[in-house]
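Aim 2, interim progress. The first record below pairs a target sequence with its structure tokens.
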Amino acid sequence: MQNYVDFVAKGTGIVFLGSLISTIVAYLLRIYLARELSVGDYGILYASISLLTSLTIFRDLGLSTALAKFVPEAMEQGRMGLVRIYLKYALLIHFVLTCVVCLPLILLANPIATLLFHDPTAINVLRILAVGTLLSFYSLSFVAFLRGRKQVLPYATFSLVYVLATLVSLHFLFSLAKNVTTASIGFAVGNVIAGIYVAFFALRAIPAKVEVKHKAKRVVRTMISFGLMVFVISTSLTLLTNLDTLLLASLRSAHEVSYYQVAVPTAMLVLFFASSLTTVLLPVLAELWAKKDVQLLSRAMYLLLKFASLVAIPLALLLFLFAEPIVLIFFGREYEEASAA
């Protein structure tokens, strides 16, 4: 039991620190973009990102959650060959579904940008972001795999590497031209670099090849059936958090999208505290469930709820009381209207 406590304590600290730094850097990235781009370009960029996020959520089907659960279970049972099989099918399905989502978006970017955003500038933005996602399809599987292997450092720093790579790329690209197209290239480059980063660790963590008899349909069905409920919930949350941006872009203007995309990330800062602990606990909970250790499982869930409540509630009140000064100081008077949101 002490091993689990030590892992959760150490893992939570690393993930929390990684989440804290990546959240701060991501917020600085938004400030940097708001300062460098026009209000309209800022809105077009994040409206395009919201559309891509809403579509790419369907490429997972809960496989990431399934990997984080089944990999530690298979490792606990000494079935190393099964670990490779889970990863292989996750990569294959993620590749196929990423192609299904991204290729039509690349081909139909013109009518989508015209009908949804009413701005031809979004055509190249959508295509570039889709290409970046397609070239880094494997990162989804590898991050989940590393979670299952309890290799905390790579997946704890994945988001940080992505944001830093994007920020550095943008700084270089903006020296050539400051517009929404070059900004989208920076995000695509960040995606690819972060994918290569996590692939380096994941490939080293794959067990040696062991021949295992298996039925492809049974493996895929087992993974998807487990992750499907989580997929439905996460898909609903993702759509809810992105459809509002898409509706604003379609029915209102890019300027209003900009204000909204300043207000929402500021308000959402409170959520990363709970998510850091959840990320570490999932593979541990999977092992505890496999061992039927209900008592320790209950204690872990209690820890999650207690930590999330103690940290998130005071921070939410702080952001509510000082919304206007925060927006004015960091984003400037051009985004003053965002404080009301």
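The second target in this work package is listed in the same format:
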Amino acid sequence: MSESKAEIEVLGRKAYVFRRTIKDRGSDVGYASDRYYVKGRLPSGKQWYKCTKMGALPEAVRVAKALWRAALEERIDALAEWGAVKKTTVATIGEILQAHERGIGRASLKLRDGTGDGYRRALQRLLAWALDLHVTSTRGTGRRVAVDEQAIAKLSSSVLTADLVDRFEAKYLARAGKSPVQRERALRGAHTVLRNARAVFERRARKCFAGLTLPDLTGFLESQLNEAEPVQHKELPDAIVARMARAALELRESQPALYVVHVLSRHLGMRPVEIVHAKVGWVQRLATPETIHLQDGTRREVVGVMRIEKTDEFDPKASSGWVSLSPCVWEELRPWLEGRDAGEWLVPIADERARQAVVYRAHADFVRPWTEGHVGKGYELRRWGADKIMALHDSLEMASRFLRHAKTSIAERNYLTRRRITAPITLADCGL
């Protein structure tokens, strides 16, 4: 018996349990059905087949034997009764995840593989937190805590309730500190996990679950988490950044990869995931330098840009855009640009895991001594850069453009620390 088909024998006649290949209208790409079917040739020579209504092979084989026996014995009433009976056992989490993964390949479900993977992992994470389903994994280097995928796959989908959401929130927040900043950060993380987990069941994905019986998901889909209290992020003083920058100069020779990460974070405000995927070809010199005139009458020269755009390996979604490079920053990056192929990784580490370790862990460790008390260690330089752009242009729109956000409100709420000064209302405004 394979994972996708099986052969059965009843009353000396063989039949086969299998998944049908289905094609969406207008598509040449086929995908396996969510339910198993049974087919065989009757003594009369007629080809016979019927849906078992089962999504798991062991259950499908059991039902298929009963149906095949009824067909051979010409018990029409039994077959008609089966056709009218609806499966009452709800699907397992494993069946739901498998059906969703298969559905990603459908032409009618326009969802990137990586996005679908993220949704399914979020559902597993939510269940693991709420139900304490974690295991210690030794995969890769070192030991780490991971979700117990096997235990989660066996769960009935009836656990997806409003109570599960409440338990997830309580368990997830229990790991957070007591300060408002730590609680706000944990709540934002909980909201992200819940939003992505619910996306498994979004309307366009419902057709993935044809043949599976789902429970009432109203409570799970509509239950609300507590809202995070807005936190005014602390400003990172220029003097602290200057001390950090001087310390970073020592990395140029000893840890060049870490130095490149720091420069990209400090001067371009790049996200860690963008730095991991950045290639030499993203950095482009302008044919003619451009001069930017600022509000205070000064000007700054732009000699190049960092083009953060969609590639085969990376999709920034709504965060694509260009970030300007000054002459001095270009000179800092020049040793890692000249003589290198455009397709090479900008952070000079070929192995992706090793590159991620430098971008996420090593850089966070480096900036930590100067950013105690701040929300996100790796993001503090990104916030500092947004504050700088805000001060240079006196424009929330320009700061949001630097951060490459779809909405200016995101930058204002989560990144900018400088209070905007408006013109005061005078006595003359009211006729005095």
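Residues 176 and 183 are 6 Å apart (CA to CA). This observation will shape the mutagenesis plan for the next reporting period.
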